[in-house]
Specification:
Blueprint lengths: L4 E3 L1 H4 L5 E9 L5 E2 L2 E3 L3 E11 L2 E15 L6 E15 L8 E2 L4 E3 L1 H11 L48
Parallel strand pairs: 7-8
Antiparallel strand pairs: 1-9, 2-5, 3-4, 4-6, 5-6, 6-7
Amino acid sequence: MTALRCNVADLLHHQAARRPVHLETDGTDFGAVGGTRLDADPLVIDVVIERVPDGVVVRGTVQGVMTADCSRCLRPITRSFTWNVNELFESHPLEGQTYQLEGEEIDLELPIRDTVLLGLPLMPLCTTDCAGVCPQCGIDRNETTCSCNNNPTDARWDALSALTFDD
């Protein structure tokens, strides 16, 4: 993804120099986490790139839209998100802590990918109080009350009630 490469030569030659950068890229190229994926809407990156003694620091936000299926009721979910980006690029990066300053360029793909994929929920919910589906009859309990609702326990666990333990 060369669209996320930025030339920072102008910043490297002036201490404390800074420049705003606005980029847009296709979010679907970033992959997915569990069942959560990025929507076809563009991923919008608004950052300020600043020269610091150790290299170049990138601060700003990444905005996009995620889609998923609720992990309880399987309804489709579409939500927008905004996450902060705050990363350091160095000539000699510390593995897992900073990113590579490649001559006079930085590549924002890896830090943006890390920010986005780490922010996506592993088990998304349509609402925090989603009741899910009934394990016995499969009815969506958010919309309908089923006859199974009188027995809130899952019948598959009934065999455990007969267990006894000797002290």
